[in-house]
């Protein structure tokens, strides 16, 4: 069982890291969340009944863990007198665009973050519906609304910079 679980984590760690990046800002917080997700997956692994695909099950556990631990966190605020050089010398590179996307995604509410993260993993509407417990039709409607929100957020970010 241990070997099967470790192989599962190794195969799908990319999706777990993307979720961690979406729900946490610092590298340390992402690592902590990743460890917590793996721990929760390990605890739940013996009860996995294979009624859904393994990735659907992993997403459900990972999202629930991220959301539950997010509610427990007390944010630490850091204030500085000046802007970091990276902000004042922003260049529209692929990395910059990726950071801009993650910045926009972080402005969404938790339910929208969960849905868009599944979409970005190329899950089908049916798989997304199973993970989130909503209808496939609702997935489509909500995705269209989220995409519109993201376009507005990115447009606003571009005008502010």
From TrEMBL:
Keywords: Sigma factor, Transcription, Transcription regulation. One of its GO terms (biological process) is DNA-templated transcription initiation. Pfam families: Sigma70_r2 (PF04542), Sigma70_r4_2 (PF08281). Residues 8-73 form the RNA polymerase sigma-70 region domain. GO terms for molecular function: DNA binding; sigma factor activity. The keyword Transcription regulation applies. The keyword Transcription regulation applies. PANTHER family: RNA POLYMERASE ECF-TYPE SIGMA FACTO (PTHR43133), RNA POLYMERASE ECF-TYPE SIGMA FACTOR (PTHR43133:SF45). This is Sigma-70 family RNA polymerase sigma factor. It comes from Pontibacter mangrovi.
């Amino acid at each position: 069982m241990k070997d099967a679980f470790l192989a599962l984590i190794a195969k799908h760690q990319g999706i777990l890291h993307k979720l961690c990046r979406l729900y946490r800002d610092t590298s340390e917080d992402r690592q902590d969340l990743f460890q917590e997700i793996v721990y929760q997956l390990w605890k739940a692994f013996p009860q996995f009944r294979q009624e859904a695909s393994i990735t659907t099950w992993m997403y459900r556990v990972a999202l629930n863990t991220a959301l539950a631990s997010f509610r427990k966190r007390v944010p630490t605020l850091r204030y500085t007198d000046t802007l970091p050089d990276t902000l004042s010398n922003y260049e529209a590179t692929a990395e910059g665009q990726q950071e801009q996307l993650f910045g926009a995604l972080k402005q969404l509410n938790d339910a929208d973050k969960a849905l868009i993260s599944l979409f970005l993993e190329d899950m089908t509407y049916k798989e997304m519906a199973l993970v989130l417990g909503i209808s496939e039709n609702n997935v489509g409607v909500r995705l269209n609304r989220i995409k519109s929100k993201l376009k507005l957020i990115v447009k606003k970010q571009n005008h502010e910079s």
